[in-house]
Amino acid sequence: MATSVSRYSTRSTSNLAKNLVSLWTQRLRDAAIPEPRTSTQLIMDYVIRLNQCVSKIEENGNPELTVQQIQLFNKLCSKRLDRMPVQYIIREWDFRYITLKMQPPVFIPRPETEELVDLINLHEFHHKRENESITFLDICCGSGAIGLSLLCENPQATCIAIDKDPNAISLTELNSQRLNLGSRMIVEHLDVMKTEFHHGFGHDEAVDFIVSNPPYIPSKQLASLQEEIISFESSLALDGGCDGLDIVKQILHFARLCLKDKGKIWLEVDINHPEMIEHYLNTHDTDFTYDATFKDYTNRARFCKLEYHKKDKT
Ligand SMILES: C[S@@+](CC[C@H](N)C(=O)[O-])C[C@H]1O[C@@H](n2cnc3c(N)ncnc32)[C@H](O)[C@@H]1O
């Protein structure tokens, strides 16, 4: 008699990871939730990882889930059904070479910001000697994504990270400690719109460059953003005022107080902003020249490089 697999297998199919993923993918798709498959798969990876059996579905084929795992998976997928971003559901996100903890409502780092880090690596670090120390300011640090990536990739760098939102400050501190980068980062709770910056935050030396991905969405466009963004991410991280440039203009003021002569400001902005910023600098006495615009991976003008020309105050 042939040794065939029994038709009446005792393995239930309703608790197999792939089946649960397919079931929830369809539910999310029916409810028009963006990226249904990626969302459910990331949630499943997270649930399995919590139990530390396997790290990825693929690595174990199609594991059977325990009742507790199924309950957790269902609960987390329901959150996605309510439009919570998957990064907040699984509480972490990869950014370049680091994994950051995520906590609502702190801004979730976007993929194009990884390109801003590439640009800075190329222009601020590659031509420097390895032992040449470089201090930079990450204004509007959020989860700490930009500053911590630059620190991780450039061992000679130190960073001062500032943000107005206390949630962002705690998260950046947490991330810097988890990544063992705390000794090279100072995290300051500061509102760039209000603070008269005099002596630095315990830092009297001028910084080599400034980077910022500030809130830049013009106020009247906020209502048209995706549900995931409006309902879950802090409006503090998004609202750039009437033309979206409120914080950018304030960063210029701030930079005059703490940036080295010929130091650069690197900004991530809206596609309409590079031209507006260039025009603003050309028509105002700001001590800055517009150096260059860079495009993101979708070929949209998203990054600006400005140069500071310190006036002799004597
Ligand atoms: C678009 S998020 C960027 C976060 C992070 N840099 C990133 O790329 O993921 C903007 C951040 O600016 C902060 N912010 C808004 N207004 C600010 C202000 N007046 N002073 C300092 N930080 C501010 C928000 O709290 C938010 O964390």
Description:
This protein is of the alpha/beta class. It has two domains: about 15-80; about 95-310, Rossmann fold (3-Layer(aba) Sandwich). Helix content is about 35%, strand content about 20%. It has helices spanning about 15-30, 35-50, 65-80, 85-90, 110-125, 145-155, 165-180, 225-230, 245-260, 275-285; strands at about 90-95, 100, 135-140, 155-165, 185-190, 205-210, 260-270, 290-295, 300-310. The strands form two sheets. Strands 5-4-3-6-7-9-8 form a seven-stranded mixed sheet, with helices on both faces. Strands 1-2 form a two-stranded antiparallel sheet. β8 (about 290-295) and β9 form a beta hairpin. The longest helix is centred in the N-terminal third of the chain and has 15 residues, at about 35-50. It starts with 16 loop residues before the first helix and ends in a 6-residue tail after the last strand.
Brief summary of the model shown:
Helix content is 37%, strand content 18%.
Largest sheet: 7 strands, mixed
CA-atom Rg in angstroms: 23 Å
Give the class from helix and strand content and strand pairing: alpha/beta
Taking strands numbered 1, 2, ... along the chain, how are they ordered across the largest sheet?
5-4-3-6-7-9-8
Tell me the number of structural domains: 2
Count, helices? 10
Average pLDDT metric: 90
Query: End-to-end span in angstroms?
Result: 101 Å
Annotated CATH homologous superfamily of the largest domain: Vaccinia Virus protein VP39
Which percent range fits the helix content? 25-40%
Uncertain residue segments: 1-10
Spell the H/E element sequence: HHHHEEHEHEHEEHHEHEE
- The overall strand count is 9
